Amino acid sequence: CFLSASFLLTVCVLDSLLCYYCPLQHKGKSCPKITSQCLPDQRCSSSKGHYGSLHILSAQGCVDTELCGSHDITSYRGVKYNVSHTCCCKDECNGWPKSDTKLKMLHTEIVSAFTASSILNVTISGDH
């Protein structure tokens, strides 16, 4: 059985893509829902900036095809980060940038529930 390599590789054959855009910034910072049109030799990308093993920065937008799957060192506000680029080749496939707002709200709810439970426990324990 012979399989051609062309069946194993995903190739983008598009004039230009429409991708979500957010500049390189702290991963928890919110970003407006902006799209950008890529040049024919670009792909949609979601990029992550790491400082050691910590994911600190995120970016989205169009990148040149040769950057897809690569890592580079980028300086952001005087600190060097290892930035990786993950690409896709469908319109808006790089997902709308999201902030950590839901995560922060969940954390607040958990802390509030824990505090309320502790107060209730002290009140019930004090009634004996």
UniProtKB/TrEMBL annotation:
<dbReference type="InterPro" id="IPR045860">
    <property type="entry name" value="Snake_toxin-like_sf"/>
</dbReference>
<feature type="domain" description="UPAR/Ly6">
    <location>
        <begin position="16"/>
        <end position="95"/>
    </location>
</feature>
<protein>
    <recommendedName>
        <fullName>UPAR/Ly6 domain-containing protein</fullName>
    </recommendedName>
</protein>
<keyword id="KW-1003">Cell membrane</keyword>
<keyword id="KW-0449">Lipoprotein</keyword>
<keyword id="KW-0336">GPI-anchor</keyword>
<dbReference type="GO" id="GO:0035036">
    <property type="term" value="P:sperm-egg recognition"/>
</dbReference>
<dbReference type="Pfam" id="PF00021">
    <property type="entry name" value="UPAR_LY6"/>
</dbReference>
<keyword id="KW-0325">Glycoprotein</keyword>
<dbReference type="GO" id="GO:0005886">
    <property type="term" value="C:plasma membrane"/>
</dbReference>
<dbReference type="InterPro" id="IPR046354">
    <property type="entry name" value="SPACA4/Bouncer"/>
</dbReference>
<keyword id="KW-0472">Membrane</keyword>
<dbReference type="InterPro" id="IPR016054">
    <property type="entry name" value="LY6_UPA_recep-like"/>
</dbReference>
<keyword id="KW-1015">Disulfide bond</keyword>
<comment type="similarity">
    <text>Belongs to the SPACA4/bouncer family.</text>
</comment>
<keyword id="KW-0732">Signal</keyword>
<dbReference type="GO" id="GO:0098552">
    <property type="term" value="C:side of membrane"/>
</dbReference>
<feature type="signal peptide">
    <location>
        <begin position="1"/>
        <end position="19"/>
    </location>
</feature>
